[in-house]
Amino acid sequence: MKSENFETIAIRTQVERSLHKEHSSPIYLTSSYKFDDAEEMRALFANEKEGNVYSRYANPNTSEFIEKMCLLEGAEDGFATATGMAAIFTTFGAFLKNGDHIVSSRSVFGSTHQLLTNVFSKWGVTFDYADLDKPEDWEGLIKPNTKMIFVETPSNPGIDIIDLEFLGNLAKKHNQLLVVDNCFATPYLQQPIALGAHISIHSATKYIDGQGRVLGGVILGRKDLITEVMNFARHSGPSLSPFNAWILSKSLETLAVRMDRHCENALKVAEYLESHPKIKLVKYPFLPSHPQYEIAKKQMKQGGGIVTIVVEGGVEGASKFMDGLKMFSISANLADTRSIATHPATSTHSKLTEEERNIVGIEQGSIRLSIGLEHINDILADIEQALKTP
């Protein structure tokens, strides 16, 4: 039975059953595979026949995970990586060479910023940052040697948003590769490829797993583009392990119901904090006060599970609030079943200068709240008592 419904696809897509007729997919903990004869071995290595050759290339568990993600996001093909950052590095490495240029959103994860400024710059790749709230500036930054437009939307941790349809048209006009980090939205809330992106990237460590257990990443896109990714990845080796792929594939079965609760809880937290006297600013895509609220409503199903706030009192106020939390975890991770508070200026984005952080809205009092699946009354009670900390 074929279905177009997200939940059914996520639950019912699985690797072919073995002779044991298992109901749930087994874990294929094997590094290599046996060939029937020398000719099959030759044909598989020559890409004349489809099949497993070596688990650095593919494994039944990674193949199942990729197939699900492709179906859920509307992609032709994909490649699974060991981490989300491995997915970004592999995408950059597959398509960029000495002399190439990237136009990137200024609001990017701290490690992505490090790739652009300290890693690919050593290899002769240059970049320019553009602001998500100034779409009119993007076209002017495209140069004759620009090869890629890269964007996070919603961004980490500023929760800024840009119109992906606009970027898709811009990329098409200038023959650019549009790459979107879709980590915060997940394929359940947003499908960048349908809006004009060529490649969509996820840190599967986050909402795809959703329970803080394993690392993983995935690159999704057109088959010819993913072939380029595979050619790079098979030799550089950032492959996802079979065990983690099995976990992530099983986790997709509950992604929709988890995201519904994350979004429901996060919206209530955002609405509550927006009127709180100790909070200077609340950023959440589905708050009408969000600068790109209309764009968010157009391209996202719901607002996601991340709320970014600015606490009165700068770094001291932020520290006092975080230290006052009793249920929330203080962690650098996000997208867990458990609610998490993070101070980006001293953790995930600490390698940026203060000027760079201020430009993307990361103040000393900024706190990223990853709203979990606990009862909303307990989440709100913990925030309220922490804000009363003397």
Written overview of the protein:
It catalyses: O-succinyl-L-homoserine + hydrogen sulfide = L-homocysteine + succinate. This is O-succinylhomoserine sulfhydrylase. With 390 residues, the protein is α/β, with parallel strands linked by helices. Helix content is 38%, strand content 15%. The protein contains 15 helices and 12 strands. The strands form 2 sheets. The protein has a 7-stranded mixed beta sheet with strand order 1-7-6-5-4-2-3, sandwiched between helices. Helix 3 packs parallel to helix 10, helix 4 packs across helix 9 and helix 13 packs across helix 15.
**Mean pLDDT, all residues:** 96
Distance between the termini: 59 Å
Mind telling me the C-alpha Rg? 21 Å
Structural class: alpha/beta
Order of helices and strands: HHHEHEHEHEHEHEEHHHEHEHEEHEH
Strand content: 5-15%
DSSP helix count? 15
CA-based shape: globular
Low-confidence stretches: none
Largest sheet: number of strands, sense, barrel closure: 7 strands, mixed
Strand segment tally: 12
Report the helical percentage.
25-40%
- Read across the widest sheet, the strand sequence of neighbours is 1-7-6-5-4-2-3
Features:
globular, seven-stranded mixed β-sheet, five-stranded mixed β-sheet, 12 strands, 15% strand, alpha/beta, 15 helices, 390 residues
